Amino acid sequence: EAFRRMGIAIHVASFPLARRTMLADKGEIDVDSGRIYQYGAEHPNLIRVEEPFTNLTFALFGINPTLRFARIEELKSSDLAVEYRRGILFCENQLKTRVAPTRLSEASSEAQGLRKLLAGRTDLYCDLEYPVRALLNSPEYRDMIRVYKALELGSVPIYPYLHRKHAALAPQLAATLRQMKAEGLIESYRLQVEA
Fold first, then answer.
1. Which of 20, 38, 73, 82 has the most CB atoms within 10 Å of its CB?
2. How far apart are CA 30 and CA 44, in angstroms?
3. Any alpha helices (H) in the chain, and if so which ranges?
4. What distance in Å separates the CA atoms of residue 120 and residue 63, rounded to the nearest whole number?
5. Residues 117 and 62: beta-carbon distance below 8 Å
6. 59 with 110: CB under 8 angstroms?
């Protein structure tokens, strides 16, 4: 919608995080739709649009409803097997200082992480909340054991990044996103996705 308002036709494609990073850095894709504020410091070919369009929430998920935590520090004294999705640095950084290396593992996708959780191979799985919820609402998982949010770890604002060849568009895109927020459109889209 933002690009439509700006009169720019776009094609949307989905890529694994590492591939998306490589493609954006090389300019083979023009926009990386959402990264954290600090992301641009390590990617000089990308220009941050100075208006976040959403917040991403990170959480620990489990299948045992009694596994709920008030604080992540509680993991230090547990013997739980914990996994996070490779490339989700927020989870990795939170867990590496609180979970012994012998009890911490990486999944290559949210589907793999959930399958291992549901099979009892891990006790907790850390990821972004939205892809986990989307997967749990898919036909493959809808009738399976209920997955619980054991702990919300926090949320961070997410910014679009443009390849530097499109740097002149960054202020216009930021203004368009601000206008869409003021209209309540971004929140409306978020609620549609959650539903």
1. 82
2. 14
3. 2-5, 17-26, 89-96, 110-118, 129-136, 170-182, 185-194
4. 8
5. yes
6. no
Q: Answer whether 182's CB lies under 8 Å from 64's CB.
A: no
Query: Are the C-beta atoms of 88 and 64 separated by less than 8 Å?
Result: no
The stretches of 47-109 forming alpha helices (DSSP H) are: 89-96
d(CA 139, CA 157): 30
More confident residue, 47 or 89: 47
Contact 147, 61 (CB under 8 A): yes
pTM for the model stands at 0.75
Token pair, residue 60, equals: 């620990």
- 10-40: pLDDT as tens digits: 999 988 878 999 999 999 999 998 888 989 9
> In whole angstroms, what is the distance from residue 167 CA to residue 162 CA?
7
Q: Are 87 and 63 in contact (CB under 8 A)?
A: no
Which of 52, 51, 45, 78 has the alpha carbon at shortest distance from 64? 78
Torsion 29-37-191-4 (CA) sign: negative
How confident is the model over 59-74, as pLDDT tens digits? Answer: 999 999 888 899 999 9
Residue 193: both structure tokens together: 């996705």
